């Protein structure tokens, strides 16, 4: 399911100027694809301002998200892969930004479980950090 969700929802770019820009760019394919409304992006940004960088789930990786009622239209996931790290609050460096938008708790848990399995595989994770294209990222996902 993870690979299908991410297909055509991955952007690989060199750098961004801020963590806010990273979340906005990471969300673009979901917004353009009708998965989320603009309000969802605003809610994700507000969550970080209010709660700190809790979305940095492990070194180098962030997973911005918010509640379904904040503007999720249908379940989806996107990824922004940066060549150069962006600094999140509290000096947290990130280069992989997975945006999660789900309409129900079961799908939410299923996607997080798949993502967790992927991120626990050191070889796949290393390949993702060095990927230069969407195809290379997708090759890391079983």
Automatic annotation (TrEMBL):
Instruction: Write down the Pfam families for this protein, in alphabetical order.
Output: PTS_EIIA_2
Keyword terms, alphabetized: Cytoplasm, Kinase, Phosphoprotein, Phosphotransferase system, Sugar transport, Transferase, Transport
Please cite one Gene Ontology biological process associated with this protein.
Answer: phosphoenolpyruvate-dependent sugar phosphotransferase system
Quick one: where is this thing mainly located?
cytoplasm
Mind listing the GO molecular function terms for this protein?
A: kinase activity
Keyword Cytoplasm carried by entry: yes
Q: Where in the cell is it found?
A: Cytoplasm
Single GO cellular component term: cytoplasm
**Ranges of residues in domain PTS EIIA type-2:** 3-142
Protein's job: The phosphoenolpyruvate-dependent sugar phosphotransferase system (sugar PTS), a major carbohydrate active transport system, catalyzes the phosphorylation of incoming sugar substrates concomitantly with their translocation across the cell membrane. The enzyme II UlaABC PTS system is involved in ascorbate transport.
This one is known as Ascorbate-specific PTS system EIIA component
**Annotated source species:** Clostridium beijerinckii
